[in-house]
């Protein structure tokens, strides 16, 4: 098998899974609209839930601006900064990522990211820059910039385009979700690798659990899998 590119999911894959914090939106609302914090927090949570339900059921994307606006909060850069500070603890890149991405690129394998996200590109790139991996990524696609989300094939094709490859059979997709990542990428013809450490809420599980071609418990195990496919 020729491997032209390895594409990664972000949350739960390149960054370890972090369980949702039910008080997170309340802390954000207290900073932004202290006089109506509880009501705003409920509206923010409801808007976020609606966005992810739409993603799961219809593969249609959403944005943080949409979530803020639905809660009656002006989606200013200052508001986004408050949100970014609240979630910062859940954004740390896996310590094994730098060595893995470096080794893949040394082999001539392109590295890409495809994330179902409401966050902006600038937010994600700031995270990658902070953790020393931004320059190791050849192309990234964030569904906040698309009309669709994984597992829609157009999302995966956008990620392929971003790293300059055209044949899904020569791509590997690595993710933590059996519906969004494994089913979606596998349906397009990619080989898939599951990182099975995330506890996916029932409200985020899709109608199909894809079967991965390989399973790794740590990112550092992925290189041997890819090398094995490249030499088979």
UniProtKB/TrEMBL annotation:
<protein>
    <recommendedName>
        <fullName>HAD family hydrolase</fullName>
    </recommendedName>
</protein>
<dbReference type="InterPro" id="IPR051540">
    <property type="entry name" value="S-2-haloacid_dehalogenase"/>
</dbReference>
<dbReference type="InterPro" id="IPR036412">
    <property type="entry name" value="HAD-like_sf"/>
</dbReference>
<keyword id="KW-0378">Hydrolase</keyword>
<dbReference type="InterPro" id="IPR023214">
    <property type="entry name" value="HAD_sf"/>
</dbReference>
<dbReference type="InterPro" id="IPR006439">
    <property type="entry name" value="HAD-SF_hydro_IA"/>
</dbReference>
<dbReference type="GO" id="GO:0016787">
    <property type="term" value="F:hydrolase activity"/>
</dbReference>
<dbReference type="Pfam" id="PF00702">
    <property type="entry name" value="Hydrolase"/>
</dbReference>
């Amino acid at each position: 098998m020729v491997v032209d590119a390895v594409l990664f999911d972000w949350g739960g894959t390149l960054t370890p899974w972090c369980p949702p914090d039910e008080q997170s939106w309340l802390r954000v609302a207290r900073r932004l609209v202290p006089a109506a914090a509880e009501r705003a927090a409920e509206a923010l949570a409801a808007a976020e839930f609606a966005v992810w339900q739409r993603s799961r059921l219809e593969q249609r994307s959403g944005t943080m601006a949409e979530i803020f606006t639905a809660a009656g909060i002006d989606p200013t850069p200052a508001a986004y900064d408050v949100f970014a500070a609240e979630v910062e603890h859940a954004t740390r890149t896996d310590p094994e990522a730098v060595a893995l991405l470096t080794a893949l690129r040394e082999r001539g394998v392109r590295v890409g990211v495809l994330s179902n996200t409401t966050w902006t590109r600038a937010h994600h790139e700031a995270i990658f820059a902070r953790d020393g991996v931004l320059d190791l990524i050849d192309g990234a696609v964030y569904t906040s910039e698309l009309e669709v989300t994984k597992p829609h094939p157009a999302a995966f094709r956008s990620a392929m385009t971003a790293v300059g490859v055209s044949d899904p059979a020569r791509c590997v997709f690595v993710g933590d979700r059996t519906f969004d990542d494994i089913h979606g990428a596998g349906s397009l013809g990619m080989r898939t690798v599951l990182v099975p450490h995330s506890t996916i809420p029932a409200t985020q599980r899709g109608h199909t659990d894809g079967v991965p071609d390989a399973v790794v418990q740590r990112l550092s195990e992925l290189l041997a899998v890819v090398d094995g496919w490249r030499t088979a």
